[in-house]
Amino acid sequence: MSSEASTEVLPLLPIKEMVLMVHMEHPVVVGRARSIAAVEAALAGEEKTLVVVAQRDSAVDAPSQQDLYAIGTRALIRKMERRSNGGISISLRGLERVQIEDVDSTNPYQQARFKVVPLPSDQSSEVEALHRDVLEQARQVEELMTSDWPKGLLVQMLESLRDPLDHVFVLASLLRLDVKKQQAIHEANSRLQALRLIHDYLNHEIQVLTIQQEIANQAASNVSQEQRQYMLRKQMAAIQKELGEQNPEQAEVEELRQKLEERNLPEAAQKVADRELDRLERLPPAAQDYQLIRGYLELVAELPWSKSTEDNLDLGHARAILDQDHFDLAEVKERIIEHLAVRKLNPRSRGAILCFVGGPGVGKTSLGQSIARALGREFERIAMGGLHDESELRGHRRTYIGAMPGRIIQAIRNKGVNNPLLLLDEIDKLGRDYRGDPSAALMEILDPSQNVEFRDNYLDLPFDLSRVFFVATANTLDTIPRPLLDRMEVLRLSGYTEEEKVQIARRYLVPRQLKEVNLSEEKVRMSDAVLEQIVRRYTREAGVRELNRQVARVVRKLAVRFAEGNDEPVSVEPSQLPDLLGPERFFVEKLRQETVPGITTGLAWTEAGGDVLFVEAVLMPGGKGLTLTGQLGEVMKESAQAAQSYIWSQADNLGISRDKLQSNGIHVHVPAGAIPKDGPSAGVTMATSMLSLYLDKPVRSDTAMTGEITLAGLVLPVGGVKEKALAARRTGITRVILPKDNVKDLSEIDETIRREIEFVPVTNLKEVFRAAF
Amino acid sequence: MEFGLWKPPADVLHLGERWFIKLEVAGVCPEEVEIVVHRNTLRIRGCRRDMLLEEGYFYHSLEISYSRFERIVELPFTIATDSIRWEYREGMLLIQLQKEDAS
Q: Is A724 one of the annotated active-site residues of the chain?
């Protein structure tokens, strides 16, 4: 065609968001009135052609020449269809590139005066190379394209064309480049330029598509990883089933179920266990509840709901064992035998609850063990000392994390029988605080009528404790709450006399210690004199614990000699003791030979047994009233005041001058000053001290005394007479003044002591004073 | 997919040594048809112009391609240029030609 330079006029159709390139065909929907008019005008032409040009800004609705690119396309309307909304769908085919000279907007539609701009046709090796590269890129792009693009179509399309520019145009249209980029390609002055542009865009497109694909692949691999694991698990389960194996959780549940079935649970427990088992089965092992429920079920399965030991009710056998293990303690042993006898006659009788009270080391705990041995019962010791939380005994509710059953249920579980002997050790040292009072819980546990259905908070099922043999021990009864004390049968284990201790040492302690170091009894001989010396000079206690330690020390020292090669039997002499045990630890309180007025020997009862104490009193000329020192408790202070008041009121009868009373204060001190003392039993002692002072007459030094006084001068009975007598004897006292009402207690005291000490029973202070001076 | 100018459909047939090309170009002005021969290819160009162009005609829909067309037909032999004859009959362009050797 030879119309290259000439200008023509055609209707103008501005289009948005795209550039119609030469040889390309595009559907376009025409909606704007002016554009519709332009299309109508084109249709009214012979050739159905118009000029299409892209808008610079698609937001402009009625673009003027400035809003349009200068290079457009002469296009043929290939097809046309009217739409129901008045718009027109047309298919446009680009015929030629045109340069718009100017736009005439006077008609209802715009008209463009334009000049054809032929496509470039430059040829060079660079064009050739770039062209090949672009085709290769196109292949890659198609490779990377996902979704809806049919594979191979792009390449096929490109192969059907030969002109490099046609390739560029196809690619530019299909890549959904923005208008600016498309227009740049459309306007390109040379093939080289067009190819470079599309080359850059394709490069960018490849990168984006690569990243897109990576992301998609990653997401896909995440999904498939999980699916893989799921499939593997399924397969594993299938294999295990095939092999007759179960997965560990399943096996665990089965094992528990079996255990529970074997246990022969009570109905209530069976119901709860079944329910919990069902829950357990449905939970994954990783669930928090899983371990909780498992722990609970294990407890239920391990508790001895119906398993118990047979009691050995042979009284002779029991007696033999008790004698074998413990020296003396006749009263306690008798009580135990009684209990067995009752059991024998009535097997359904309730479990007894005994409480042993006595100083440390007197054998309370080991007595419990002996009973268990005699009866053939399982033995478990539960330390109560310092227990101050009710839930320690009764358990925590299962809702709490780390909840556990209480000590009682735990002990029964450990022993595996429902009738063990439970030793509640040091029950007097129970604490109590805001968390609850454990003694209240103990009351339920120790009440035979309530403990048939003991309910542990953790277990939350009734458990029968009535077959349990409870034995409690305590050093003192003072701190045990009354209601609790009422439920127990108290058996006192008073201290041992020196003779008894020597016996215990000879029969039990020495053989035991020798066995400990693997020496035979023939090798080491310890005479009673040696043991007596140890008892007297190296220990001071009601029990035999310290004695045991000292014996052990001696034995160890001897063991060294044997280990060094000596093989000759050794006989320990009293004179060797300082070498073996060091200097004597305790001086037997010698009687104060030269006593001065105002000093009186009293007798006290302590947790460690009896003891001697001195009451010292001095007159303070010019002073007034009564001063009391030596850590005296309230009760003791009051009895000192009572003593003073009595003496003042009876001054005339006692022969004390009024002068002396009025012009002097009095100070009473009870050594040792650092040890707290309390109780009313020093009343007579203090009264005697004061009187001795006022009369300036010393008290007999071989005499000790105990007894509570009243203002009327009566002497009331006191406790711990046996211990006090033992202490007096230890100190070398030969006379003891004691209330007449306590005489009956003397029967507990060993024959030998009764022979050595003269007991002076009194009913009032006058008799005391008569005996004291 | 088509590119560029519209292409009329074409049949190629022969009767012995005489080859015929039939082109469906109804509505095309025969005077404007241009036939160029180069070795074994035949390029036919022309233009279809709308003949109903009086005032008041209004297109409701359009499917016929107007304006210029171009059709290139390749034959399995070199065409004898001077053997070409053509006529326009009932909307079809009928081209007659022969092999160069045979002429």
A: yes
